[in-house]
Write a structure and sequence with these properties.
alpha/beta, 30% helix, single chain, globular, 20% strand, 194 residues
Length: 194
């Protein structure tokens, strides 16, 4: 997505994207921390938040004027932020609706998070499955998001070999150092042939 990450300190290979998501949550979320998730969501998000001791804060996708659109409503997200909000988990292209965040959506999120210390977990496993002229907007493309984001991708989804269970996480070195403290003891490494 036009951003260079240092493979030694800013990229980690994981045993699939689900492991990457759980590892990021365990690395950053502490008991009582709130994590905003957008509903409907992938079924592993909420249990991962709860395993970390966090409190899921569900924000419905769509707006009052377009409830079935599955588009993010940044005003609703802003309304869910409290002093206890530790992280926001987004997913684009979205599972299960296939909706995608626009550049304007990402810029608005960037502006919303700018004055905060809230982290971002951006699940982008379907990044290469975008149709109808839409463009995937990776959090990596927005400096204010990239500096606070764990960006999760999946070889399995990209290459249609989901059984391989190989994912990647890109994050700034300081965040990746925390991620690797958990990764070291829940997976350590993935199968070498893959």
């Amino acid at each position: 997505h036009g951003v260079r990450y240092d493979p030694a300190s800013e990229i980690t290979i994981t045993a699939g994207a689900t492991q990457a998501i759980l590892t990021a949550l365990l690395a950053c979320v502490h008991p009582g921390d709130e994590v905003i998730v957008l509903d409907p969501c992938y079924d592993s998000y909420v249990p991962g938040i709860e395993l970390a001791g966090g409190v899921p804060v569900r924000v419905p996708l769509g707006s009052s004027s377009s409830p079935g659109s599955f588009q993010p409503d940044v005003a609703r997200i802003a309304g869910a932020i409290t002093p206890r909000t530790r992280l926001i988990l987004i997913n684009s292209p979205h599972n299960p609706s296939a909706s995608v965040w626009s550049e304007a959506d990402m810029r608005t999120l960037e502006e919303l998070l700018a004055p905060t210390n809230i982290l971002l977990l951006s699940d982008e496993v379907y990044e290469h499955m975008v149709f109808d002229g839409a463009t995937h907007q990776s959090a990596a493309r927005f400096p204010g998001l990239a500096e606070r984001a764990f960006i999760v991708s999946s070889f399995g989804k990209t290459f249609h070999v989901t059984g391989w269970k190989v994912g990647t996480v890109a994050a700034p070195a300081a965040l990746m150092a925390e991620f690797r403290k958990v990764h070291q003891f829940n997976v350590f490494t993935v199968n070498t042939p893959m």
